[in-house]
Amino acid sequence: VPILVDNNAPTVTHEKIDVDVIQNDGKDCIKENATITYLISDIVENTTCSGIHSIQTKVNGVEKTVDVKTDKKVENQTISIQTDNYKANNDGSFEITIIVVDNAGNETTFTRNIYLDIIAPAFASKPYVIEDGKITLYASDNVDDSSELLYSNDGVNFQTSHQSSLQIMKLIHL
């Protein structure tokens, strides 16, 4: 009877996120709820280990146990976490913790924060420049090509620009 000595902890590898992720002040941010997928593995350096025994997830303190097939040795398992199933913290963060234990009792804890961008964009410190009868508005907060800047010449009818700055051709009295 062969004896398997397993001193290697399982691994949690990151992941696929089904929406765009942007960097904001060194934080991974999403603009909408997302499904985040992780690969759990108990194979180290192409060597099969004892197999996955249990997987527990914790998102902002809410714990869930992931079903692991116990009728056979599980070497790899994919899990998905949907952020819309959880309430974001006040700063928009989701603290995701995954705890994996293999059949030899080796344990891995993986923690990651991702932020739902809940802060409205702001204008730059100097939000506009008037030059030659034109006003140029500047927005901040990691404005990208998918961002929209709404503006109005009369305070009622709003138009959209998909740029981080916008030139309005007539002088508006501020």
Structural account:
With 174 residues, the chain is mainly beta. It is 0% helix and 53% strand. The strands form five sheets. Strands 2-3-11-10-7-8 form a six-stranded mixed beta sheet, with no helix packed on it. Strands 1-4-9 form a three-stranded antiparallel beta sheet, with no helix packed on it. The chain starts with 10 loop residues before the first strand and ends in a 6-residue tail after the last strand. The relative contact order is 0.18. Mean pLDDT is 78; it is low at 164-174.
Helix and strand arrangement:
Layout: E1 11-17, E2 21-24, E3 27-30, E4 35-41, E5 43-44, E6 47-48, E7 52-59, E8 62-66, E9 76-82, E10 93-102, E11 107-116, E12 123-131, E13 134-139, E14 149-152, E15 158-161, E16 165-168
Parallel strand pairs: 3-11
Antiparallel strand pairs: 1-4, 2-3, 4-9, 5-6, 7-8, 7-10, 10-11, 12-13, 13-16, 14-15
Residue-averaged pLDDT, rounded? Answer: 78
Strand order of the largest sheet: 2-3-11-10-7-8
Low-pLDDT runs of 5+ residues are 164-174
- N-to-C terminal Cα separation, in Å? 85 Å
Percent of residues in helices comes to under 10%
Order of helices and strands: EEEEEEEEEEEEEEEE
Tally of helical runs? 0
The geometry reads as: elongated
What kind of sheet is the major sheet? 6 strands, mixed
Our estimate of the beta-strand percent is: over 45%
Q: What structural category do the secondary elements indicate?
A: mainly beta
- Find the count of extended strands (DSSP E, 2+ residues): 16
* Gyration radius from CA atoms, angstroms: 24 Å
Summarize the structure.
This protein is an all-beta fold. The chain is built from no helices and 16 strands. The chain is elongated.
